[in-house]
Amino acid sequence: QATPLHPRPVFVLGHPRTGTTLLHSLLALDVDCDHDDQDDNHTTNTNRVNDSATPTTNFAICSTFCAGFPSCFLWFERWGKQLFRGVIDETRPMDNVPLDFDLPQEDELATNLLSA
């Protein structure tokens, strides 16, 4: 099944330490981006309004768990979050940005893990 793509995608690009993580996190806070309602491709496609799901095409996000385990998150996410829940800190050590398996993550982490 093909996933429809937005005709005008948004790419957040920048050098390290220039605010790209903050911008990415702010975009993920958009009311039309609810990463708790994900389809089988782990991209956001619904928005909760009055406990009903309505389609949206604004943003798709990659969670920290999906970025950290790019080759197996589809089948390992359910057990992996339970297995590793006490392993990660509450914040990133370099800048105190909150860190959690369900928070949005920049997907270059997954690219680096797959290509290294």
Can you characterise this structure?
This protein has 116 residues and is of the alpha+beta class. It has helices at 20-28, 64-68, 73-84, 108-115, and strands at 46-49, 52-55, 62-63, 104-105. Strands 1-2 form a two-stranded antiparallel sheet. Residues 34-57 have low confidence and may be disordered.
Walk me through the topology.
Blueprint: H1 20-28, E1 46-49, E2 52-55, E3 62-63, H2 64-68, H3 73-84, E4 104-105, H4 108-115
Antiparallel strand pairs: 1-2, 3-4
* Number of continuous helical runs: 4
The major pleated sheet works out as: 2 strands, antiparallel
Mean pLDDT: 76
SS-based class: alpha+beta
**What Rg is obtained from the alpha carbons, in whole angstroms?**
15 Å
Principal-axes geometry comes out as globular
Q: Tell me the β content.
A: 5-15%
Low-confidence stretches: 34-57
Q: Give the SSE string.
A: HEEEHHEH
Query: Into which percent range does the helicity of residues fall?
Result: 25-40%
**How far apart lie the N and C ends?**
30 Å
Lateral strand order in the biggest sheet: 1-2
Number of strands: 4
